Amino acid sequence: MLKRVKRRYLAIEIDSAEAFDSRELIEALWKAIEKLYGEYGASKTGLNLIAYDPDKKRLIIRVMCSALDMVRAAVASITKINDKPIALHVLTVSGTLKALNNKTEKQHQQHQNTPTMY
Question: Which domains does the chain have, with CATH numbers?
Answer without folding.
Answer: 7-113 (3.30.70.3250)
